[in-house]
Design brief:
5% strand, two-stranded antiparallel ribbon, EF_hand_dom, Recoverin, domain 1
Amino acid sequence: MATAREAAEAEFRRFDTDGDGLLTAEEIRKANEALGGHGASESEIEDFITAADSDGDGTIGLEEFVGLVGHGRHEKA
């Protein structure tokens, strides 16, 4: 069974469509659209980006992503 970190890394790679090691808002929106309308709202996407982007560069790196989702903190209660 995969650890939470391994699962988060796999999700990151799936979302990082250009393979540059960074998630942009557009890549996150495309991943959300692929969920067929069952994903996050635009405001939830923006909140996710704000929460994950710890260095303020407008993108989400692997460690930022793992730090947020690798521990289940992104999931709704």
